[in-house]
Write a structure and sequence with these properties.
Number of domains: 1
Helix content: 10-25%
CATH class: Mainly Beta
Order of helices and strands: HEEEEEEEEEE
Keywords: Signal
Low-confidence stretches: none
Pfam family, one: OMP_b-brl
Number of strands: 10
CATH architecture: Beta Barrel
CATH topology: Porin
Mean pLDDT: 84
Largest sheet: 8 strands, antiparallel, barrel
Strand content: over 45%
Distance between the termini: 39 Å
Protein name: Outer membrane protein beta-barrel domain-containing protein
InterPro entries: Beta-barrel_OMP, OMP/PagP_B-barrel
Number of helices: 1
Organism: Sulfurifustis variabilis
Oligomer: single chain
Shape: elongated
Radius of gyration: 18 Å
Length: 169
């Protein structure tokens, strides 16, 4: 199975979870959450980093084991403009570009205590940097509705250091 096909199936499955849960009487709208943040992005072969953003939504599936929870997240990211320069026959030439696109991941959270979570993610990027993506980080629970996250997310070509705000209504 090609990676692109697998990624499309994963994304479709992530979008299908809430309607399927609702059909089985298990969908709970209080488990939905939303987030947004800024990121510092670096790509291989790029001289200049880009400052970008991401927005996302998710669903909490609940605890798998003591202090271990599983979520699904779907979002959009823009890496911001990055500059690549190269010297060709003694002439330095530069070009700017960015990467954008949708992504879907499963997110595991390990609650260390009521204030801190360790976070791990694995999924697919469907945009300009399509392919496998994974990340690690931590979350600080300001209160029951608000979490601040710091994560390092790796995609096929782009590495992102992200600071996100998560809101659970």
């Amino acid at each position: 199975m090609k990676l692109r096909t697998l990624a499309l199936l994963t994304f479709s499955a992530a979008l299908a979870v809430p309607p399927l849960a609702a059909a089985q009487g298990g969908f709970d709208s209080t488990k939905l959450f939303f987030g947004a943040g800024i990121s510092q992005n670096d790509a291989s072969g790029i001289d200049d980093e880009g400052t970008g953003f991401q927005i996302f939504g998710g669903y909490e599936f609940g605890q798998l084991a003591r202090n271990v929870s599983l979520d699904a997240e779907v979002g959009y990211m823009d890496s911001g403009d990055m500059k690549a320069c190269d010297t060709f026959f003694g002439i330095r030439q530069c070009a700017e570009g960015d990467a954008k696109g949708l992504w879907a991941t499963g997110v595991g959270r390990l609650a260390l205590n009521p204030q801190f979570d360790l976070i791990g993610r694995l999924g697919f990027d469907f945009g300009d940097d399509d392919g496998l993506m994974f990340g690690i980080g931590g979350g600080f629970n300001v209160n029951k509705q608000t979490q601040l996250r710091l994560e390092l997310v790796e995609r096929d070509e782009i590495s992102s250091l992200q600071f996100n705000f998560v809101y659970r209504p």
